[in-house]
Automatic annotation (TrEMBL):
It comes from Aliirhizobium cellulosilyticum. It holds the Pfam family OpgC_C. This is OpgC domain-containing protein. It comes from the Bacteria. The keyword Phosphoprotein does not apply. The chain crosses the membrane at residues 12-33, 39-59, 79-97, 134-151, 158-177, 192-209, 221-244, 264-282, 302-321, 327-348. Keywords: Membrane, Transmembrane, Transmembrane helix. InterPro entries: UCP028704_OpgC.
């Protein structure tokens, strides 16, 4: 039947969800924190891990073009996106009069001025303010999953080649979907570019599903990945802090582009995952009691991510009203936000286990 879950994926996804919350909260240290982890940030790792999880959840060898389960997941993500949009719109409406200068209000200004038109566009994934185009990217990726499975069964090499070609065309040609809610006029996370790192994750996940090691240990590869990941930290941080200017700034920006999933970002994410996957520390950490709650939030990523957006927006409103907030006050908000993530993860996991137990008892009560 194959492996259904890999606790390391849950743990790493949980960590990335907490990092995403910190990055979106607009603390005085959020931007520096985001750039102090190398070329890649939590977004790349989360998409990579999402691809692995999708393979574990939905892949069936030689099943042909099986649409139902991945597309049902895409529909659930779409519903979560709509609910999140409504929550953020209501939030902005409540704040609009007194706190119009906060990012929560300014991001939704277009909707507040033209609610019907922009609301229809939002439902059609054509108007996504702030951080709201992240879930739509996942919708597109989940629609892509059945094709990935089909091509993988034909030839993994063909799959990666086609995915890479799409990535190159989208990146070099700046092929993207329109999003007038953002100043750039397009999706911040271009799904045509981000599908590559997601597809790589799917291929790795299929290896796990079929009983193979996705990232087998090799001493040279491990040290190469470690060297790359370590060097990426000061280089990216120095560039962000304007301590140095690369000789070809335009080309360098393409290499680290977040919208187009630049090659240095992909390489860094793969290096970090390779290191984490092969470190005994991470393998042991999955069994530590005090980290189980982190794995729980990784296991329930969609509701946790959605509530994380609400929490980070609330934190950004506070920071907009108190730009000189003390570090202590910011740390209290950070800890409270992370605690809310963990509490919700515990609640959802408890609910899942209870439902599973009820189904098992029902099956015993009604034998075939």
């Amino acid at each position: 039947m194959g492996i259904q879950r890999e606790v390391r994926i849950d743990l790493l996804r949980g960590i990335t969800l907490l990092l995403i919350f910190i990055g979106h909260a607009e603390f005085t240290f959020s931007a520096t924190f985001q750039h102090s982890r190398g070329f890649a940030d939590a977004s790349e790792l989360f998409v990579l891990l999402a691809g692995m999880s999708s393979a574990l959840a939905y892949y069936r060898p030689n099943a042909g073009l099986s649409l139902s389960r991945p597309w049902r997941r895409a529909w659930r993500i779409y519903l979560a996106y709509l609910l999140l949009f409504l929550i953020m719109a209501a939030f902005a409406s409540l704040l609009a009069i007194e706190y119009a200068h906060t990012s929560a209000v300014s991001d939704m200004a277009g909707f507040l001025n033209e609610p019907v038109r922009r609301g229809v566009q939002a439902a059609l994934l054509a108007y996504m303010p702030g951080d709201l185009d992240i879930l739509p990217m996942y919708i597109v990726l989940m629609l892509w999953v059945p094709v990935v499975f089909l091509l993988h069964d034909r030839s993994p090499t063909l799959l990666i080649g086609l995915s890479t070609l799409i990535w190159i065309v989208a990146g070099r040609g700046h092929v993207n979907f329109a999003n007038p809610a953002l100043e750039s006029g397009h999706w911040y996370f271009d799904p045509l570019s981000w599908q590559l790192i997601f597809t790589i994750g799917v291929v790795l996940g299929i290896r796990i599903k079929t009983g193979r090691d996705p990232l087998p240990y090799d001493r040279k590869a491990f040290f190469l990945a470690a060297g790359f990941a370590i060097i990426a930290i000061p280089v990216n941080l120095a560039y962000f802090l304007a301590w140095f200017q690369p000789p070809y700034p335009g080309f360098y920006k393409e290499l680290i582009s977040k919208t187009n999933s630049g090659p240095l970002r992909i390489a860094d994410a793969l290096a970090i995952l390779y290191l984490a996957w092969n470190m005994d520390f991470v393998k042991k950490a999955t069994g530590w009691v005090w980290l189980r709650h982190v794995s729980m939030i990784g296991r329930h990523s969609l509701p946790i991510f959605s509530i994380g957006i609400v929490l980070s927006t609330s934190a950004s409103v506070y920071m907009g009203l108190h730009p000189q907030a003390s570090l202590g006050a910011q740390m209290i908000i950070l800890v409270a936000g992370c605690a809310a993530h963990l509490a919700l993860g515990w609640f959802l996991e408890r609910k899942r286990l209870r439902a599973s137990s009820d189904r098992l008892q029902l099956g015993r009560a009604n034998p075939a």
